[in-house]
Write a structure and sequence with these properties.
There is one protein chain. The chain is mainly β. It has a single domain, classed as SH3 type barrels. It contains no helices and 10 strands. Strand 2 and strand 3 form a beta hairpin. The two termini are about 15 Å apart.
């Protein structure tokens, strides 16, 4: 079980986008994630009229390492560390380390 999963709201804790928030759009296999509107890079794209793709300069979300983000705790509205514990019935649950509440 991962501590951060798709559609979680996270805050960037280091890098050029430090302090910015966004939702996780994709989890990559190499320990990196894509966050909506974060870590944008300009890409020069060649047009393809057969496929209906316009050419020009586009902004593209680039991967960011999962260690550079923290899950946002809705109770405190800040980034928080996440742990995993096993309940009595054997289910694994993510929880916030600061207050012990389960991640919804």
């Amino acid at each position: 079980m991962n501590k951060i999963v798709k559609n979680d709201q996270v805050v960037v804790i280091t890098g050029k986008d430090k302090g910015r928030r966004g939702n996780v759009t994709e989890m990559l296999r190499n320990g990196k994630i894509l966050i909506q509107g974060i870590n944008l890079a300009k890409k020069h794209q060649k047009g393809n009229p057969n496929a209906g793709i316009a050419g020009g300069i586009i902004e593209k979300e680039m991967p960011i390492d999962i260690s550079n983000v923290m899950l946002v705790n809705p109770a405190t509205d800040k980034g928080d560390r996440v742990g995993i514990k096993v309940l009595e019935d054997g289910k694994k649950v993510r929880f916030f380390k600061s207050n012990g509440e389960a991640v919804s």
